[in-house]
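Morning. Coffee machine broken again, so started the prediction first thing and wrote up yesterday's gels while waiting. Chain of 372 residues, entered below exactly as on the submission form.
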Amino acid sequence: MQWTDRIRQVKIILVVAAVVIAVASLLVSHFLVRDLSKEERHRMEVWAQALHALNEADENTDVSLVLNVMEGNNTIPVIVVNDEGGIDDFRNIEDTTSIEGYARRMIQAGDTIRVDRQLVCYDESIMLKRLQAWPYVQLGIVLIFVVVAIFALLSSKRAEQNKVWVGLSKETAHQLGTPVSSLMAWVEMLKEQYPDDDLLPEMDKDVKRLQLIADRFSKIGSLPEPVESSMNDVLKHVVDYMDRRTSQRVVIEAHLPVNDVVVKMNASLFEWVIENLCKNAVDAMENGEGRIDLWLLEEDDTVGIEVVDTGKGIKKKDIGSVFTPGFTTKKRGWGLGLSLARRIVEEYHKGRIFVKQSEVGKGTTFRIEIKK
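Came back before lunch.
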């Protein structure tokens, strides 16, 4: 909780800092642009006066200073238009093919100064245009910085959460190891004393089941080596296990192809994923009654497994959150099952798991896809 609050506070600080920087940048740029615009207007007025002086000069007038003023403008685009609409002069214009249209746009913008029978039309310099655009460039940079910072914080949070889950899983496996070993020894002793007891084989299965669970928890956080295994057998084991531990009012059936579907996987972990989906389906059934169908489908180079239940379904607003650590709609539980299931499917087996379909009151279909 403290980590979440800290993340939220850092996000708020980053957003506020970005807004302050953006507003300050826009204000500073606005004042600079306004001052430079006034300065360029003043320069063009001086340039227009120089043009007037040049127009009034005769052969005895020294126009060297006037020419220096006019030649001194090497940044501001200027076009001199006469009253007949012709172009008398222009400076600092790169594209001269549409100079008349450029002059009309200057006139429409009101950037003109009347000089005798001529109109001096001018535009903002390249420097002024760049300065106007610069705040938006800064705003983009700040936005990218904030997004990267928030992404880094979220990644750090996920990494820390993963470490917690991995540590918890391995510690659970370690703690289970000793009592499971003792139970196995006790079962063997009971078998010697009561060889004909019908309950001992079931007890033995449960102890081995505990050992399998401990083994699964110990593998979380590491990358188990996948080996070629039968997906048919995985689904059969799940059906057999769930049949013996759920109400008779819940029907669980596997629909398997005739041929054996062999996939490179860690069968123990993958079996746990299907079991988890089935247990969630049982928990979602009204009055503990319903049906679960496991479909094994071959599609080109992909194997699809669909877990279809007749439970209460998932609300549309919750479908995007079902794989989030800590999310649960049940009164009990930590909300880690589907999160771990996705990790096993996507990280360990390079596949994908998703909610294919869900309707409140009718049921849900989860789909898993992995490469052969």
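The two ends are 41 Å apart (CA to CA). Going to sketch it on the whiteboard this afternoon.
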